[in-house]
Amino acid sequence: MPKSVVSKPEPYPDGVVAIAAWLLWLVAVVLFIVIAGVGLVFLRGITAGAPKARIEPEDVAELDVFFVCPECGTEFQVTRLGEIQVPRHCGEPMAVVRRPRVNPANN
Q1: Is residue 74 part of a domain?
Q2: Same domain flag for 63 and 34
Q3: Count of domains in the chain?
């Protein structure tokens, strides 16, 4: 009976190294996680923007400033002023009105 001849596989030319398939997948998964993590950190940094400076509210009741609705005449007196945003009433922005202080002692 003839012996079967098992030939030895020839090495890759020019020093190319064969890498196991599981190692290729491991490297691909690690690279994916690293690139995705860096991308998420980058996007969070862009969308966050600069932190806003906190404006401490101050009492302004002595100034007699009012928000007045031009449609129905509803008035809100401004007593503390901080980050101001003009409110809306009846679908329209309210007007800012400053009135002179009425002194009840002079009447």
Answers
A1: yes
A2: no
A3: 2
Both tokens of 74, joined, read 């509803």
Q: What is the pLDDT of residues 11-62, one digit of tens each?
A: 666 666 667 888 889 999 999 999 999 999 999 988 887 777 777 777 777 7
Place of tokens 């007593």: 79
Burial class (CB in 10 A: 0-12, 13-18, 19+), 91: exposed
- Give pTM, 2 decimals: 0.42
Task: Report the C-alpha gap between 55 and 80 in whole angstroms.
Answer: 12
| Beta-carbon-side half-sphere exposure of residue 62 (alpha carbons within 13 Å) | 2
- Look up residue 39 and give its two tokens: 């991308």
What is the extent of the structural domain holding 27?
17-48
Beta bridge pairs of residue 59: 80
Residue 106: DSSP 8-state? G
> What phi-psi label fits residue 97: left (phi over 0), alpha (psi between -120 and 50 degrees) or beta?
beta
